[in-house]
């Protein structure tokens, strides 16, 4: 605690903590690389379903679901400081899973994999470094296998599911669920889940989502990232840079100057082809630092703007306002927002940032709820609110990552493995020494480049990313194709076993 207080006092008044060249003791770090920690596909099933609808309003609602789901780690997992990224470090992973579907009768999302089941003693927010999960029961209309015996919670489209999902929500007499269906999905290096969370879904319903990122700048620290779901023709890309400062008794984190948000593009044929959605980032605060009990809050506003696609005079835009928390009482994590139609080329209409700025006749949907619990929407002209996303139902979905022995030397898990192993073993002194050795090696490489008059060249992304939209290099495309081929081979091997 004395180390933490000393560090906190040093950071007071610093304009941007993220740019400080400060090396933390390993004991204050979480055993996870920065590039792995800051990925936004903890629910890759929601990302994969973004372009499923032929209706433009429903596509915007799908982008909103992804926007709320990308913060899931701050609900389920313990907050912590990951390792600082090294220049040229990269991380890749993938998922093979069934995308969510929208129930035709209720209009609500059906979650088809990794439904959250609270671990005994799990706090209301801030997590324990993971979350329990189980497999939903799905009918054939939602891609389920007939007479499936694989799981324990009914899909989220049923109102009864909320009642059954309290506690452990297990079927009586299902002996296999104690050790197979209920597990912790660790959002980082460790024993991630290898059992079958999608036993209720036919294999043909599953798709592949691949993620690749690379640290392209060290001072300031900036990374480029790319997601793709080739079966659904969905791409995501952007630049990650954060700005952090100590504010009162918390650390406030926001996007840096190179961070223009997350860009989602629909590349498949059909309605919506060529649409690009720009999702800006809110600000977040890490609270409870001096108490040693961290939790996060979100504030400010975000905008989601649709551009491109079919020619038209108007497009859709969403504004979400995250409510500031009161100094008194427990945080409520509330938000409200709207979806409105703006005129293409009208700078005033595209500059609105708060819902109250938008005239009522331009609003097509209202949004309200809690980003920790449940978010609802109501379309213009309708009285009934519908569930946009029930975050209570969502567990973190484990990533599929190649074994360390198959990774490159600069790949995140392999690069930081000496530190990770000692942190997990609580050997703090050796973990700090290993961390310092890695950091010194990076300084030596930087000095060698400077002596030769050379600049660092990114491997997986082209050097032009000034507009916040990185482009894969030939090597980056090759890495994506390799990851897809690896998952396809695993899927075929699994089909043969069945």
UniProtKB/TrEMBL annotation:
Biased composition annotated in UniProt, kind: Polar residues: 173-182
Name used for this protein in its record: Oxysterol-binding protein
Stored PANTHER family: OXYSTEROL-BINDING PROTEIN-LIKE PROTEIN 1, OXYSTEROL-BINDING PROTEIN-RELATED
Naturally occurring in which organism (per UniProt): Kwoniella mangroviensis CBS 10435
Gene3D superfamilies in the cross-refs: 2.40.160.120, 3.30.70.3490
Membrane-spanning segments: none
Segments of this protein annotated with the region Disordered: 126-197, 440-498
Tree of life domain: Eukaryota
Biased composition (Basic and acidic residues): 441-498
Lineage of the organism: Eukaryota, Fungi, Dikarya, Basidiomycota, Agaricomycotina
Biased composition (Low complexity): 148-165
GO cellular component, one term: cytosol
Ranges in coiled-coil conformation: none
Pfam family membership, one: Oxysterol_BP
InterPro entries: OSBP_sf, Oxysterol-bd, Oxysterol-bd_CS
